[in-house]
Amino acid sequence: MSVTVRLFARLREIAGTDELSRPVGAPATVADVWQGMTGEWPALTPYAGSLSCAVNAQYARMTTAVQDGDEVAFLPPVSGG
Amino acid sequence: MLLPFAISADPLDLAGVLALAQHRHALQARRDDVEGPGAVVLFVGAVRGRHQGQEVRALTYEAYEPLAVGSFERISGEAAARVPGVVLCIHHRIGTLEVGEPSIVIAAVAAHRAEAYAASRFAIERVKQISPVWKREHLVDGLSWVEGATVDPDDPAPLEEAWRRACP
After folding, report:
1. ipTM of this predicted complex?
2. Which of A37, B23, B47, B166 is least crowded, fewest Cβ atoms below 10 Å from its Cβ?
3. Which pLDDT score is estimated for B1?
């Protein structure tokens, strides 16, 4: 199956894109998707400790299960306001 | 037509957001047969020209729009759970903003001023904790990301901290 990954701020810069399609084996969690990302872009790895995530535009956890076609967003520390 | 919660690439409509919040409070108060809007607090965050000793020429904001709007709705619910009857409208701007330009507007409407002030302060603290919005500073020697809070909307500690700041 595959998921759409959304990246923001510095994560987007590291990967060089704000949206990409990623293959992932089933069953899978957000953590599995992240692991695939860090495998391809090792510079993402330091963000593991400060990372948040969302699935289909809902707050999620790294343990949240993902389904084929889901949109998985990785959120670095925020700075709105 | 303005929505109560929004991400906007256009300049923020401060008066429109204020009027919308006031209107929504009036409707809600009439429905619930309680006191109508007696206090309106408008918080406007603006681009500051200096940050941690460095000159800031502009800020560029980006957001994960659907989740950011959802976070504003969530914050509104969190505020209403602590300040019954309060109505919030929250708009955040994205794109590149010059010094002095409004980046966020929060209209908090309640029957009385203490409730409106508390909800307003609570809301901006929560936005900074959980809303997926990022800013990048345009400094004299280049661009610099600002990285603040790690988002965890279910963590009770920052939630309580935001409420503590709202009611000193």
Report:
1. 0.96
2. B23
3. 86
